[in-house]
Amino acid sequence: MTTDLKTTSLETSRLLRKRRFNEPVLAYYDTDGQLCQTADMPGIRMNNPTHDKDARHQVYAAPTLPQAQQWLREKKRYDVLVDRDYFYGKVGKYYAKIIRLKDGAMSETGKYRHYDQALEAGLLKALRTM
């Protein structure tokens, strides 16, 4: 099963696990850091392996970027919004705004050429500031 949506990077997946992300996903990173699909077992919760607690055998859930964005907004109260620069009618690069919803604190990422890159950077920044 293939999907058009980009999954999170290994670093983002590790931070999501650290922040207790435990939602059903369609992909995961194995112990070697390779991205694998869960076609044979769809919707498995990869961050909660009950069969093996050994740290050498941990796998990391690789949610899609929108799924991680939604989880951050609903469970951790961080909103990650991607916007684009406009300068005298010309379209610029993408950047992400991170808003902590409990007090309205806001920060931004750098500029990126692609939407997915800006969203990934925003998710990483939000996860690091928790």
List the helices and strands and how they pair.
Elements: H1 10-18, E1 27-29, E2 35-37, E3 60-61, H2 65-75, E4 78-87, E5 90-100, E6 105-108, H3 115-129
Antiparallel strand pairs: 1-2, 1-3, 4-5, 5-6
Protein described:
The protein is of the alpha+beta class. The protein has three helices and six strands. The protein has helices spanning 10-18, 65-75, 115-129, and strands at 27-29, 35-37, 60-61, 78-87, 90-100, 105-108. Strands 2-1-3 form a three-stranded antiparallel sheet. A hairpin with a 5-residue loop joins strand 1 (27-29) and strand 2 (35-37). Helix 1 (10-18) runs parallel beside helix 3 and helix 2 packs parallel to helix 3. The protein starts with 9 loop residues before the first helix and ends with a helix. The model has no long low-confidence stretch (mean pLDDT 85).
- Strand arrangement within the widest β-sheet reads 2-1-3
**Number of beta strands:** 6
Strand residue percentage: 25-35%
Largest sheet: 3 strands, antiparallel
The first-to-last residue Cα distance is 34 Å
Oligomeric state of the chains present here: single chain
Overall, the morphology is: globular
Estimate the helix proportion, in percent. Answer: 25-40%
Query: Structural class of the secondary structure composition?
Result: alpha+beta
Q: Low-confidence segments, ≥5 residues, pLDDT <50? A: none
The rounded Rg comes to: 16 Å
Total number of helices: 3
Summed over residues and divided by their number, the pLDDT gives a mean of 85
- Compressed to H and E, one letter per element, the order equals HEEEHEEEH
